[in-house]
Description:
CATH class: Alpha Beta
Shape: globular
Order of helices and strands: EEEHEEHEEE
Number of domains: 1
Oligomer: single chain
Strand content: 25-35%
Low-confidence stretches: none
Helix content: 10-25%
Distance between the termini: 10 Å
Amino acid sequence: MIYQTIIMPGITRVKKNSRRLFARGKYITNLPSKAYEEWAENVKKNILIGKLSEPLKFPVFAHFLIVRPDKRKFDLSNMIEGAQDLMQAALIIPDDDYKTLIPVFHSGYSGVEIDKQSPRLVITLTDESF
């Protein structure tokens, strides 16, 4: 059963690339890249969340479709990490650990498409891996 489909608009950004370090007194703060923060703010304002068909039963399977504007190479697992954090921040899932969310990637299907006009990340939450 499909519980919910979530669309995160824009070019998906990686949270841990180009991190920024700031000194605050004797402590160092490690912040995500500026590009990730801008993408995350845009997603928070414009996230499209489908209506829940029924309450989520955990663990839930997350099927990721990354729609990119070009064919540039990227790290698939890094790409979904920030999205999982945003789902947690939006209270869609209580945690992004393995007991709550299981990312699904199918053999023979990369989960990547090209659309120059409308890059986005589509996440479908289901109760099975298909």
